[in-house]
Amino acid sequence: MARDTTHTLHRSSGNAQREKLLMVGLELFSSRDFASVTIKEIAKAAKVNSALIYYYFRNKEDLFRASIEYAILQALENYSRLKDRHSNPVDLIDDWFENNIEMAPAFQKLVKVLLDYSNSRIRLASVDALAKLFYREEISILSNSIRHAVGLGAFDPVDADRAATFASVHLDGIMAASMIRRDFDLGAEIANLREQFWLYVGYRKARRTIKKSA
User: Fold this and answer.
1) What is the model's pTM?
2) Rounded Cα distance, 14 and 142, in Å
3) CA 25 from chain center: how many Å?
4) Quick check: helix, strand or coil at residue 182?
5) CA gap 18, 55 in Å, rounded
6) Residue 10 pLDDT > 70, yes or no?
């Protein structure tokens, strides 16, 4: 029994150490381009020996891949929790906007590394698949909620997929702008996007009582 407990503790410790390296790697990869980040810098930031990184990852590209996968999987888990919180579609969409304000630092890092990845010569099948899954899940949350809200009479009969893409693409633009422009009020811009989205789907003030009663 003692041997099993020790093995479990060792495995948990190993997972925690690997996750720490992923978080540190993501932090550095999101602040600089891939080529300029070194294994030595990652090890220094994580306060570990460089050899430990090679214990968990084959090379810097492998750590880069795992860091992106980690960020996307965290975002997908967050979306899953978001869906579980709501049965009302308008509440879910409203919370999606709020969630993007609350989770902005994490989403900014994800957008940054995905931008760098898309502009690099690196091509990783697992990253491509997860990136597609992330955006597919985001569009699915929004488009399904829009259809539901249209059915309730809360929205005009809009094209749900186009409306969802409108919100998703503009949100990416806001996230990118927040990393480029100084004194950028990300919360205010997401709030502005939400108001534009309500206009897009015809969710007028007179209709907003439906949100509470639906």
Assistant:
1) 0.77
2) 37
3) 16
4) coil
5) 10
6) no
Report d(CA 213, CA 74) in Å as an integer: 33
Judged against a pLDDT cut of 50, whether residue 206 lies above it is answered with no
Spatial neighbors of 11 by CB under 8 A, at least 6 apart, are: none
The total of structural domains in the chain comes to 1
Looking up residue 129, the CATH number of its domain turns out to be: 1.10.357.10
Residue of 124, 110, 1 whose CA lies nearest to 59:
124
| Interatomic CA distance for residues 81 and 79, integer angstroms | 5
Helix (H) or strand (E) holding 66: helix 60-85
Q: Which residue in this structure is represented by tokens 């304000």?
A: 101
Output 43 or 131, whichever has higher pLDDT.
43
Look up residue 23 and give its two tokens.
Answer: 């978080």
Q: With beta carbons less than 8 A apart as the criterion, state whether 83 and 45 touch.
A: no
Longest Cα–Cα distance of the chain, Å, equals 65
121: which 2 tokens? 């010569």
CA 203 to chain centroid, in Å, comes to 26
Tokens of 114: 């995905």
- Of residues 89 and 103, the one with the higher pLDDT is 89
| Token couple for 40 | 């030595």
pLDDT bin (cut points 50, 70, 90) of residue 127 is: confident
- Say how far apart CA 151 and CA 23 lie, in whole Å: 42
How does DSSP classify residue 37? -
Domain span including residue 197 = 2-213
CA distance 159 to 150: 10
